Amino acid sequence: MNFSFSSYLKRLRSILIGVLIISFLPSIFFGIAPLQSMKLWEYTIENRKYSLFPDIFDKFFYSMTIFFTALLLGLLVALLLTFLATLLPRSLKRAVYGFLTLLESLPDLFIVIALQVSAVYIFKKTGLLIANVSGVYDNRIYFFPILTLSVLPTIQLFKITFLLMKEEQNKPYITVARAMGLGNLYITLNHVFRNIMTSLFQYSKTIFVFMLSNLFILEFVFNLNGIMTIMLNTQGVSFIITVLFIAIPFSFLFEVMESYRGGLNVQKEDAA
Amino acid sequence: MIVRLLKQPQFLIGFLFIVSFILLSFIYPSVMDVQKESKFLYDENEVIVGIAPFSPKDMPPFGTDMNGKHLLYLVLEGAKYTILITLVIAFLRIFFALFFSLFHRKSKSTFFDDIVQATLYIPTAILAYMFMVPLFVKDATEPMGMMTLIVVQCLILVGIGVPPLVSTFSEEIRSILAKDYIVSTFSLGSKKPYVYYKHVLPELSSKLLLLFAQQAIQTLILLAHLGVLAVLIGGSKTVMMGDIFNLTPSTISLSGEWAGIIGQSYQKLLTAPWIILVPLSFFAFTIFSINLMIQGIQNSLESNKS
Prior knowledge:
Chain A: It is a multi-pass membrane protein. The structure holds 2 protein chains of 2 kinds. Chain A has helices at residues 5-30, 55-86, 90-104, 108-126, 143-169, 172-179, 184-202, 204-222, 227-232, 236-271; strands at 42-45, 48-51. By secondary structure, chain A is mainly α. Chain A has a domain at 58-226. The radius of gyration of chain A is 23 Å and the shape is globular. Chain B has 10 helices and 4 strands; from the N terminus they run ααββααααααββαα.
């Protein structure tokens, strides 16, 4: 770990400049000032104005709860599935991989809407409401958003771990372990998984960014009042603040991850 | 390169799917007899027994939308616009990004880097929405014609994708320029444009195809998202629908692309889910074909290496 605070600040400065540029570009291009009647600390949803503070804290935590629970759930399920997949015979593994490519092609929107519609359909047919499928003002829903948000990361993580596992299987240390008479299960759990976790770390940034985009469409379809809804409905200063709310913690995470990865590489070079 | 790609079955299948989609979309009126509209359903006594929208069960294969237009017809009609717009956008993104990254490397401006850093945290759909809404406002006050609107919208969608690509490309170019044979080419006295044209571009070219396909997928997803947000390519028109007692304003997409079908009846999601799910599954299908192509390209690249 060689996390440096100054490089984090540098990154934040760069983000701030970027957001500033982005938020003023539309008005520069089209010559339209951000809604004149809008005050600085307000956002509008369907022509009703709300003040940004302190709503934003509440909504931010709500969104982040969904986000990280979904991420954890996705990671756990993906690892479990990979573990099960390693037990499959070789011919089936190819089929699994092909199936994963098919699943990965489903747009996030498709999954969100399909799950929502099927929940409603089940309710109509059997009268069994699995969980609420739409958020109404104060009634916060957790189950369906988390489930939906975790589907795509699960597929992606599963695919990545599956590939990594395949790569790892041919490495010398596995052969040695086999020769020593260690069981397949023991090797997978104790050695392969640990090595995969560190490689998996490299993909975390892509997955985080991808999930943020998913979170947005999820909030829109499920009508959740989260941070992304605010981001969609703001302009100017409050837009910048909303973006910073997401950017500050996430860039911190990225910075930590990158420094950690850098540390890993140094270790590897030392070992070599 | 192309011959090698054509030997990859996955690439071929994906490619054929997409090409046949576009071709079918252009020539279907002369080949197939697609019924365009049926607003009412009659029984044998010519009595109206149903009114649009019809579910896929009533009107196979895909049912109809709120106005009684058959979804099969809409999807076929929209395929050419959707896929061609996507391909054009993806191509232009790659083209401009390459163009900028050749200059970007020289001038050490951090302009693009800053924007890239910021766009990580803003979903692309929101970014596109931010630019599209002022455009619609402007279009409402001083109409600019549908073609101009489409061109400007495409340019926005291109512009959103360029900065991240520029940073990818400049990193790629930097790593190519650091290679030994490039360094020795420089020391033998060759000019920069020559090296870029002769060495850097060929090295990039295999990567370019891959990035092009990935950009196409991203653009398709972005289009679908924008459809849900009711930001339609080619603009939309609000019409009064329903009977005299129950007038409801509804938006009609002017260009026939798939996101437009989604956008104009998104509000009816729970009454007629198939209107949304059919175009969405066609989106999924197109993305799947492109994914197959990507798989093929990667396979051929790997066999090239070994």
